[in-house]
Amino acid sequence: MWLTYSVFAALCFGLRGILYHWTSQKPINRNLLLCGTFSMGAIVNGICALVFSSHWTIAALIGIQMGLFSFGANASMFKGFAVGKASLVAILTALPSVVVVIVAFGLWQEKLHAMQLIAFVVIIGGVLLVRLSNDISLRNLQGAQWGLLAILLFAANDLSGKWSTLMEADLFPTMFFMFVTGATCFGLWWLRDLQSERGKRALALGDSGHLGRVATSQYVSAGREPAFWTAKRTFTVGLAVGTTNAVGMMLIVTAFDLGKAGLVSAVTALNVLIVLLYTRFVVKERFTPLEITGISLAFAGILLMRLFGA
Q1: Which of 69, 199, 253, 269 fits 156 for a cystine, CB–CB 3.0-4.6 Å?
Q2: pLDDT tens string 99-141
Q3: In this structure, are residues 248 and 37 in contact, taking their beta carbons and an 8 Å threshold?
Q4: 75-86 burial, b if ≥16 CB within 10 A, otherwise e?
Q5: Which of 180, 187, 184, 231 lies closest to 28, judged by CA?
């Protein structure tokens, strides 16, 4: 059953990745969007905890740690999609399973077999080929930096999820604390940015505020998209994205309870396939032969880890 839960979690996270990429191209406030995303997770898991009479134990507070790691990981991935190449960031964020396999071996003696080492080399080789593609640029390197940070934080989140199952923490309270923590972090970040933006706007506009309002009115009346989404619209879209994230997290933590952390993380990493298909057929982002080779190697490594990890 761990494989079934992992596959469905991969589907949910793949859809989440597509929505993240789509929203990253819109004139929105990223922090408010992610506040909405995590808020929906808190609502869903809070309701489930009440319906199923879950136990609110000390172990469930591990969710706070998960929330902090998830906060950093999601912010890094979203930033990577916004400033870098989507396919490169998608590949990099598929690699936390490598970190999880190694750390899980050290912490819980989940053995690292020879084929897992081979898979590790194949995956890293694929990523290097993607980075060495002919169209590499400073933009792509910047996206790679955010992707690498997301690797470490997503891996830490996965390992924390596995730890919560070892501590026999109930699923829904743990997820509730995780999503509340994430929503709080992004909400505070948004409020700080909002206050700073208002201060700068008041200082810069002064008496010219009326002219700015007239220009904005003309811009909207011309039938073009406003320069910035309203807070209500952004938060609502975040709630919609949060549905995929909440379901995905519930599925992956359940899978951690039933299977090895490294294997579960490796299978859910296949969500990158969905994102890459989206970037190829919807975004129309073309791949060079070297990139195709690197992407293929990365997928092969993930599959090797899945097939020979047990």
Answers
A1: 69
A2: 887 888 888 887 766 776 777 677 667 766 765 554 445 445 5
A3: no
A4: bbbbbbbbbbbb
A5: 231
Residue type present at position 28: I
Total residue length of the chain: 310
Q: Which residue has the tokens 């929105």?
A: 28
Looking at per-residue pLDDT, the higher value among 302 and 5 belongs to 5
137 is written with which tokens? 């640029």
Please, are residues 119 and 308 in contact by the beta-carbon 8 Å criterion? yes
Contact indicator for 21, 271 with CB cutoff of 8 Å: no
Q: Tell me which residue of 89, 11, 92 sits closest to 268, measured CA to CA.
A: 11
Instruction: Determine the Cα–Cα distance for residues 249 and 239; give it in Å rounded to an integer.
Output: 15
**CA distances (Å), 265 to each of 23, 101, 145, 162, 206, in order?**
25, 8, 21, 10, 53
DSSP secondary structure string for all residues of 106-158: HHH-----HHHHHHHHHHHHHHHHHHTSTT--HHHHHHHHHHHHHHHHHHHHH
Residue with tokens 């080929």: 129
- Express each pLDDT in 223-252 by its tens digit: 445 556 888 999 999 999 999 999 999 999
Q: pLDDT, tens digit, for every residue of 166-209?
A: 999 999 999 999 999 999 999 999 999 888 888 877 777 665 55
Residue among 68, 111, 41 nearest 261 (CA): 111
Cα separation, 206 vs 210, whole angstroms: 9
4-8, 66-70, 230-234, 274-278 — which is least confidently predicted?
274-278
pLDDT, the chain, mean:
79
Secondary structure class of 168 (helix, strand, coil): coil
Question: Using CA atoms, how far apart are residues 114 and 236, in angstroms rounded to an integer?
Answer: 47
